[in-house]
Write the structure tokens for this entry.
Amino acid sequence: MQLSPLAGQLAPESLLVNVPDLIKAYYAEIPDPSIAEQRVCFGTSGHRGLAFNGSFNEGHILAISQAICLYRKEQGIDGPLFLGMDTHALSMPALRSALEVLAANGVEVILSEGDTYTPTPVISHAILTYNRGRKSNFADGIVITPSHNPPNSGGFKYNPPTGGPAEPTITNWIEAKANAFLEKKLVGIKRIPYEQALKANTTHRRNFQEAYINDLGNVIDMGIMRDTKISMGVDPLGGAGVHYWKAIGERYQLNLTVTNETVDPTFRFMSVDWDGQIRMDPSSSYAMQPLIALKDRFQIAFASDTDHDRHGIVTRSAGLLPPNHYLAVAIYYLFQHRPNWAKTAAVGKTVVSSQIIDRVAAKLGRKLYEVPVGFKWFVEGLLDGSLGFGGEESAGASFSRLDGSVWTTDKDGIIPALLSGEITARMGKDPGEIYQELAREFGSPIYGRVEAVATPQQKKILKALSPKQVRSNELAGEKIQTVLTAAPGNNAPIGGVKVIAQNGWFAARPSGTENIYKIYGESFRDAAHLQRILNEAQTIVNDALSSQ
């Protein structure tokens, strides 16, 4: 992966998206469903695309919205639908399109008061709060966001009554119906003008922000941060939680400074990511340069991405923590400082997260629940309390309330950020220092990821590999102990392969959007060993692909 000369620098004018042209393309470009890239396609986090290339346009949103209406009718979901959006330029046009369809279908829609932006976890929280104790009239939700993706991107995701990302059986159904509408040139879609939809007796407003913030004291120990007056800084990265942080500080009397409250759909205030694109990724040291530069000003600092479902933690001791490092620290802390959590509550991780989490879980005497990539695999466990924590290597996590009951079943970038303040205040040392203690006890893994070119046919083969197709017996000089094509936690296909040796492992899985496959690797030895793992991983995978 070649590093851009712009990486880590403020975005130049030439890199900024032309917002009027982008919105014009949203309405003007007509998707062609005979072109694969222009069809509705739900990945791990909903349908995403670009207006300029016909992959995220009004046609897609009208079709998906009507498909969701049909799904709700088939499933008997007749409660309110909570509708939120982030700060990407395409989010407001998409919200307008969605509301026109939802209102025409008689769906009770709850919008944020004042058209304020709404983080992903806030919609999950609203769904679960409404549904708690109900036997019928369940709520669900839609979040319009492409997450941390570049400013020219659009995204649209559906959360069923469980509150988290929809499982594949649901998204496959919605996807198929939506594409059928595209193929019929949108015939059969019900729609009324936006102004009429706003005035419909099924359209309502709610103060999402107040309800979420007032409940935060039931998942985070706000008192320890208030009483110690720990100094904290937060950069919302111009995202949906931009107005939440000041309110959180005031509500709980925290010494919390918002370092940047700018909302600008070009995201011109961001430093450029590794590949020369603007990307609001709180786990990227290139995108996080403005906050990293302020690390010595605060005892702890943090950021969340555009829809606030991911977190980034900046410490005085270590700067920006890699996501796996902070996940290990959060797990180590939470399971020792949440006495009301069930003793059987497990630790949830994805197959491509660091194995230091396995070692921490074993030390804590907690069951490890390892699942494929995608937060949807944690929903059931978080909902029923069998999971105390669920986290992804891409800096997404959620965890139980103080009493052990469910908080959100979607990723929440706000509570892991606040947890870093709780940890620092209670322990007298920041998460970077605590991670070093864990590394001394469990080993200091080095983690990396590379990409390799793959044809669509090769991606299909990789997704369906069996362990027998991995013909090598060794990985980087060590005997291969295990070859996985299904996750140990729930036996669901991982959509690729994971190969494990004593001091290292790799996992390979195809990209859902590009003709590449991704190789994740980790070594508990050194950088040279990791490089050998990654090199051999590519050879092992290519051999398996060529055997077909």
Observations:
- The chain has a mean pLDDT of 96.
